[in-house]
Amino acid sequence: MSIIAPGSTIGILGGGQLGRMTAMAARSMGYGVHVLDPDAQCAASAVADRVVAAKFDDADAAADLARHCDVVTLEIEQIGTSALEAAARHAPVRPGASVLGVVQDRERQKVWLATNGFPIGDYRHATTRDELRAAVETFGSTFMKACHGGYDGRSQVKLSSAADVDAAWESMGGRHSVAERALDLEAELSIMVARRPSGDVCVFPPALNHHERQILAWSVIPAGLPKRVVRQADEIGRGIAEAFALEGILAVEMFLLRDGTLLVNELAPRPHNSFHETEVVCATSQFEQLVRAVCDLPLGDARALRPGAIYNLFGDLWLAGTPHFELALAHRGVRLHLYGKRGARAGRKMGHLSATGESSEDALQRVRAAAAAIGADRSLVS
Questions:
Q1: CATH number of 122-181
Q2: Which sign does the torsion angle of CA 302, 305, 309, 315 carry?
């Protein structure tokens, strides 16, 4: 494989905050950046050389993007297959359609993981109301998740018993779904693995994640997990990357059960919210690592040089006016990261705070205290 050297142009399918932060890393390394997004004024538009305003299934627009780029990557996995194929006729698309085809469908993803020997929790297909009812009668407490679309807790619902089936089925519009047994969790974690086309692989330390309303609230690295769990998570991440022949980066969300079992939850072949703290923790951020990987450059050092944590900021915080960010920034070791999005609304990710500390606990305490100072972490507001 030949490298795609700085001075070349990288295309990004998707112009949200992940595309914005990837573009910033690419520009700092001397690359030009073009993005495709339905919104001409998307978050990445401020740092891109060109924006192709089009839907994610627009094959002609994807081809237009790729014609002007040396390589194409992505920041959202819900890209139309025809668009991926059209782009690939003009420039390498990394990761490619073979990875996206698995990840875009939750059922297909679970089948692929199980077939390739990776550990997953109990689940059933739920293509009909009766199949959902049978799953709940078997599992008891169950999560119903749509096979296509949905993230940050969207397109999923929890059922406590068979009495919840009708309401859940209607709320999901009768969509093809998977029904997952609710698990007895000790912790939620994620691993980020990078693989370049020439085959080199590098894995970031696991992130420990905390969700509220099924949306990531905060994340911390190092995760403070037992060495056995860290080693197993690393092995799983490497194994999945190799099985895919991945070109790019891949986040693997995992569940650690109270009995010590480690299971794969979901895959995301793009930058991931739980690794935003790599910008302050590691010599190489996840965004720079993506650029290195898709351009077949040597992968960067992914070791944690210091503990760090992030806390997500949602649109709810803006509904009463512009937050007093100076109150957060008054906390030692805290940085503010805003995504340049127009139109704050409840539940919309608008930015995050990051913090470093003497330990993971110290970093997390600092970032949560800073979030509480502006009303973001209400559990710490008296």
A1: 3.30.1490.20
A2: negative
